[in-house]
């Protein structure tokens, strides 16, 4: 039997779904644009209910992220302590670019039509107060694999470990219940990737391709796998997780194949350290070999406030 209520608003830990839309917007300079955005964000819960009621079993959810450059204007509230624009990460071979974006809507459902309808109504509501920066439609690929053929998201926290990894707590009172978000849109060189032997691919990822089993870490100081470089520990040796809701996207007809990375974290520095490891290398100079086949086109940071904070933004 399906649930009698939709997923709660701003549930950053909503289930992985078959379909997702990643919508990045910028706020225009038309008169009253900020007021229109504030009012629209405050009414997101009602808009989501209007769409999700069509099929309560479809796990419809939308998470809203607000960018650093517009946080003060849009919310009028204290800034989350770590919120700042995405910082370019430049290694010897590859660069993670910083790209614009004021608002993020992470829309997901088991049905593509519900994502479509929500986005349509949302853009009608926002009207000329915004401009679309990027719209990417993602899909589930077989058993949650990326287009490189590997299972994606195995390292995600599970159960009671999820809130502790992704929701800000007492360390930053004004931001309690919210989460930092980093997005990057990667395109893959599938021809080059497929030219590698399966064993070479597995060494780069750090897992077996078919069974999804972890491989042993390389000795200290040698080339590390993607799995190892994306595992972050603090100075006390405590490991810090993030929640990835990555989705494949692309079009065989246009030769586009990619992965939309979206990471939720209680601590922004964890994702930033991960990107430093990947692009600069750990040790420096030994970058993530996955980047030889996956190129980031975007890089933007947002903060997803709690549902109660979002609903309080209505200027009326």
TrEMBL record:
Domain Dyp-type peroxidase C-terminal, residue spans: 144-307
Family: Belongs to the DyP-type peroxidase family.
Source domain of life: Eukaryota
Entry GO CC: cytosol
Signal sequence extent: none
Residue ranges occupied by any Dyp-type peroxidase N-terminal domain in the UniProt entry: 14-140
Organism: Lachnellula suecica
Pfam families in the cross-refs: Dyp_perox_C, Dyp_perox_N
InterPro entries assigned: Dimeric_a/b-barrel (IPR011008), Dyp_perox_C (IPR048328), Dyp_perox_N (IPR048327), Dyp_peroxidase (IPR006314)
Sorted UniProt keywords: Iron, Metal-binding, Oxidoreductase, Peroxidase
Protein's name in the database: Putative deferrochelatase/peroxidase
GO molecular function: heme binding; metal ion binding; peroxidase activity
Names of the cofactor(s): heme b
């Amino acid at each position: 039997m399906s649930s009698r209520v939709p997923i709660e608003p701003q549930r950053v830990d909503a289930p992985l779904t078959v379909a997702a839309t990643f919508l990045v917007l910028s706020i225009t300079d038309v008169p009253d644009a900020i007021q229109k955005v504030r009012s629209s964000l405050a009414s997101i819960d009602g808009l989501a209910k209007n769409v999700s009621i069509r099929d309560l079993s479809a796990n419809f959810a939308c998470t809203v992220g607000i960018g650093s450059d517009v946080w003060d204007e849009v919310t009028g509230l204290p800034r989350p302590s770590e919120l700042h624009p995405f910082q370019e990460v430049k290694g010897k071979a590859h660069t993670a670019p910083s790209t614009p974006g004021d608002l993020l809507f992470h829309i997901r459902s088991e049905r593509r039509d519900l994502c479509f309808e929500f986005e349509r109504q949302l853009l009608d509501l926002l009207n000329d107060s915004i401009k679309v920066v990027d719209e990417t439609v993602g899909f589930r690929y077989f058993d949650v694999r990326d287009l490189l053929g590997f299972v994606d998201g195995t390292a995600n926290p599970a159960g009671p470990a999820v809130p502790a990894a992704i929701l800000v707590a007492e360390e930053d009172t004004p931001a309690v219940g919210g989460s930092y978000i980093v997005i990057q849109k990667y395109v893959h060189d599938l021809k080059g990737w497929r030219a590698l032997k399966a064993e070479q691919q597995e060494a780069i990822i750090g897992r077996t391709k078919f069974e999804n089993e972890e491989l042993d870490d390389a000795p200290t100081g040698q080339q590390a796998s993607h799995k190892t470089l994306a595992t972050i520990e603090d100075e006390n040796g405590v490991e810090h997780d993030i929640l990835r809701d990555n989705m494949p996207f692309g079009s065989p007809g246009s030769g586009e194949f990619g992965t939309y990375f979206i990471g939720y974290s209680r601590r922004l520095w964890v994702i930033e350290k991960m990107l430093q490891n990947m692009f600069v290398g750990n040790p420096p100079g030994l970058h993530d070999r996955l980047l030889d086949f996956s190129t980031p086109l975007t890089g933007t940071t947002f903060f997803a406030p709690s549902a109660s904070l979002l609903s309080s933004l209505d200027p009326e």
